[in-house]
Amino acid sequence: MLSDQLGGKNRTTAAISELLDCVFRGEFKVGDRLTETFLSEKFGISRTPVREALLELKGLGLVDVRRNRGAIFSGFSAVRLSEIYEVRRLLEVEATRLSTSRIDRHVLHDLLEETRQLHDANQDDQYWALDRRIHTAIAQSCGNQTLAHEIERFSKLVQAIRVTVGTRVHVQQETTEQHLEILTAITTGDPEAAADAMRRHLEAAEKAAVTAIA
Question: Among the four residues 87, 130, 140, 157, which has the most C-beta atoms within 10 Å?
Answer without folding.
Answer: 157
